[in-house]
Amino acid sequence: MNALDTTTPIGATLALLPELLLTGWSLVVLLVVAWRHEGERDSRFAGWLSFAGILLSLAAVLGMWHGDWHSEGIAHMVALDSFRYASATLILLLAGASTLLSLRYLGRQRLLAPEYYPLILFATIGMLVMAAATDLILIFLGLEVMSVAVYVLSGFDRYRRSSAEAALKYFLIGAFASSFLLYGIALIWGATGQTNLSLIAAQLAGGAPTMASLGLGLLLIGFGFKVSAVPFHMWAPDVYDGAPTPVTGFMATGVKAAAFVALVRVLDQGFIAQAHQWQPVIGVLAVATILVGNITALAQESLKRMLAYSSVAHAGYLLVAAWPGTAFGSGAVLFYLAAYCVTTLASFGILAAIEHVGSRTVLIDDLEGLFSKRPWGATSLAVCLLSLLGFPGTFGFVGKWYIISSVLREGSWILPVAVAVGSLISIGYYLPVITAMTFKPERTIDAHRQVAFSRAGKAIVAMAVLLILLFGVWPTALLNSAVRSARTLAPQAVVTEVP
Amino acid sequence: MTEIVFYILAAAAVVGAALCVLQRSPIASALWLMTTMFSLACIFVLLGAQLIGILQVLVYVGAVLVLFLFVVMLLNLSHEGSDLRGPWGVGAAVVVIGLLAVELFGLWQYTPARLAREVAQAPQLADPRLAFPAALSMHAVATPNVVEDLAAPLFQTYLIPFEVTSVLLLAAAVGAVVLAKRRI
């Protein structure tokens, strides 16, 4: 039991240990990169160095979680609870896996500027800050650190038009979304005089003035852009399609995970008394996102665009999990995030290995006969797609089942029906990929000759597939841990008298 | 005496702003903008807000304007006739001036007495010092002074956001170089 007072300098430093370690390490990597930036070898060295930093930060998070570090009184700026530790663990694992998946891809596509890896580290720092923040100002700053780094990463392939277009589009829409978020924060501050979530909850316990409700609405719009919820999803397919594939994987998983954990913390810790106001909004967004995402995905011919729309649809399922505002609902958000992120990152990792040098798109027809040439790669992709679909016996199925049960517990039946209908529609675009890979013959003799997994990439994909199958049949431990973590989210009691 | 100084500075600010808009050359415009910023800084000092005056010089004259000049020089802007002089441009200018006039009128109506009345009627907010007992001692240290009033929240209550901002700026600087440099 370690109680920290986050208002003291030592307490704040210890509470931010994982973030500080990663920031210091990213500066070292930046310096190393300034000296060694010649060829593929230096790029790979920077990648492995960054991976070591991520492991170091992960060790700090796990140590804090294991030691049960918690805050004394109200958490000032930084939360010390298992919800933060669980989300930080997920984010760091995603960042580490993305780093390893990038190693070979960057060499193949001649994207040799090693500044790529410090930018991944900066984005990860932003995500960690978002997962930890209990203050609206800090949530906003974390979001900006993450976004700025990811804008640049999505435009990293500067000589390809689509990549530059993706970066510009993402930057403009992202700035637009940030302004909504900031204006919402300003209105909430105007109504309550606070930016700390627990203090806001104390201030609004008796009911929210119109200004606070308006601010919450703008906040939801800002988050809606970041998690690509319909109708704020228009940027997502183009940006996911244009960015380098490992970056797309990182964006579709890490950015979404960080935005969702911050959203859940804001709703559950700051505005739980206003649940009747935000629940209808979240519900409508969720149903629209599930339907539009799944139906549009049906029409896609490129595998990358199909996965992009599927990630929009999955944001809908996650919104359904955020709807109840209970420990079970928020536990379902954590659990489904883990399922979705592991699966999606592995899919994009496989896609990165299949992509030809310099070519832009992999059509679903291009996968024909992949199974006969690369049986392990094809099987892994099939397992990932089945998990995204929610096939029984996979991680994704348990996640969806758990979302539905946590919503049913609160007495809603529309949202579970929407989840079920969405999953049924998604059969229409996941299954054709699997049949193309297995049942159809390859088109030309030298098809799939360029498919190349790196050793690290193989290891990451294999581990993800094992996790998908393991948690598909034995989810109990992870489920319990997710619910226990979500329980720590309740607003903290506020002292209103002089001690 | 103060009033005379104020009017001289205010006139310099207005003339600088007008010339900034009227000049054809972007460099001359930027230099006139600097005159305006300097005059505003002096007016802040006259108001007793020395710190804001100095920050005005440091941030606007020092950083922002030098950045302007760099961008102008790097982009090699030529002196071209502006395309804002048509009927649409005039119409837009009239609308903007009208809005500014309404705003000025509103501000003119807003007397100190009215402000005091509104502050008295506003609901009482929870004091963060009560929520964070340890922070109480930190607040007690601060004495009434412009710089310390600004520094105490910045480096005590909001220290963590302040530091995260520096990471944000670093990430933005690295990103700008990566995207803009032809060969890294």
Question: What's the structural blueprint in terms of helices and strands?
Answer:
The complex is a heterodimer of chains A (499) and B (184).
Chain A: E1 2-4, H1 9-15, H2 17-35, H3 40-66, E2 69-71, H4 82-108, H5 116-132, H6 136-154, H7 161-192, H8 197-203, H9 210-226, H10 235-242, H11 245-270, H12 275-298, H13 303-322, H14 327-354, H15 370-373, H16 375-389, H17 395-408, H18 414-438, H19 455-473, H20 476-487
Parallel strand pairs in A: 1-2
Helix pairs in contact in A: 2-3, 2-5, 3-4, 4-5, 4-11, 4-14, 4-20, 5-6, 5-11, 6-7, 6-11, 7-9, 7-10, 9-12, 10-11, 10-13, 11-13, 11-14, 12-13, 12-18, 13-14, 13-17, 13-18, 14-16, 14-17, 14-19, 14-20, 16-18, 16-19, 17-19
Chain B: H1 2-22, H2 26-46, H3 50-75, H4 87-109, H5 112-121, H6 128-131, H7 133-141, H8 146-157, H9 159-180
Helix pairs in contact in B: 1-2, 2-3
Helical amount of chain A: over 70%
Rg of chain A, Å, rounded: 22 Å
pLDDT under 50 segments of chain B (min length 5)? 135-143
Question: How many distinct helices of chain A?
Answer: 20
The geometry of chain A reads as globular
Integer count of domains of chain A: 1
With strands numbered from the N-terminus, the spatial order across the biggest sheet of chain A is: 1-2
Oligomer: heterodimer
The general outline of chain B is: extended
Describe the structure.
Chain A is mainly α and 499 residues long. Chain A has one domain (2-487). Chain A contains 20 helices and 2 strands. Chain A has a two-stranded parallel ribbon with strand order 1-2. The two termini of chain A are 24 Å apart. Chain B is an all-alpha fold. Chain B has 3 domains: 1-75, Up-down Bundle (Four Helix Bundle (Hemerythrin (Met), subunit A)); 89-121; 129-184, no CATH class. Residues 135-143 of chain B have low confidence and may be disordered. Chains A and B meet through helix 5, helix 6 and helix 8 of A and helix 6, helix 7 and helix 9 of B.
